[in-house]
Design a protein that fits this description.
Length: about 240
């Protein structure tokens, strides 16, 4: 009696080998996938660490720059405060000096440049001082505006005396008719309501910068000037 058993056994073995081969393939594919995932995770972790380190260094750098900036601003502010305090002290000392010097010489006024200084006088409207430079030499000029605020014809005389910062006379000038900026001929008088300007350089007897000035106004003679010199006991000289 013929049998088909060997044939069945032989057909089962190739099937098992095929199944085993397929299983090994699936196992290899799974191992390869896990290896890729592990590599990706490692790469991701490394990248994260590098980025974290970079962020930390960037933060430290920015913090350092911010600190330096704040420190610089703080130092500048301290310097500004010191400068402001020093300026206030200098201004206080200057004001105290002005009071002392002006109390020593009646009628003395601080000399400022390029601004009209109003004078409380019937014959004076204002005076302006200007600093001009010719090479290395400083020239101090004045522009005096006289007016007749009375109802009579007057002949005002004007003298300008300048002093240094401690109240020592360093120059003077007599305002002359030839210094008038408008043509008046030989007429020295001012009619009621008339305004006339004079400009010239101030004659210095000492090579110093003027800090104060004294404007002496009299009519037709130097009586007021002479009287003031007597009161000041020779502080003002005619040189």
């Amino acid at each position: 009696m013929p049998t088909n058993q060997p044939s069945a056994v032989s057909s089962i073995k190739p099937a098992r080998r095929q199944e085993h081969t397929s299983s090994r393939r699936r196992s290899g594919s799974s191992h390869h996938y896990k290896s890729k995932v592990k590599s990706y995770k490692l790469l991701l972790a490394t990248t994260s660490i590098v980025l974290s380190i970079a962020l930390i260094f960037s933060w430290l750098h920015i913090s350092r720059q911010s600190y330096d900036h704040n420190q610089t601003v703080l130092d500048l502010r301290k310097q500004e405060v010191v400068s402001e305090d020093l300026a206030k002290e200098i201004e206080t000392v200057k004001n105290e000096r002005d009071v002392l010097v002006q109390n020593r010489i009646p009628g003395l006024l601080p000399l400022t440049y390029d601004e009209a200084i109003n004078i409380d006088n019937d014959f004076v409207r204002n005076i302006i001082f200007t600093l001009a430079k010719t090479g290395k030499k400083d020239i101090y000029e004045y522009r005096l505006v006289l007016h007749n605020n009375t109802l009579s014809v007057v002949r005002p005389k004007a003298e300008i005396i300048v002093f240094n910062n401690v109240g020592i006379q360093i120059g003077m000038t007599q305002v002359e008719q030839t210094d008038a900026t408008t043509e008046t001929g030989a007429r020295t008088s001012l009619d009621p309501g008339e305004v006339r300007s004079y400009t010239a350089a101030i004659d210095l007897i000492r090579d110093e910068e003027p800090s104060y000035f004294l404007l002496i106004i009299s009519e037709a003679n130097h009586t007021a000037t002479d009287e003031l010199r007597k009161q000041l006991n020779g502080i003002i000289s005619a040189d």
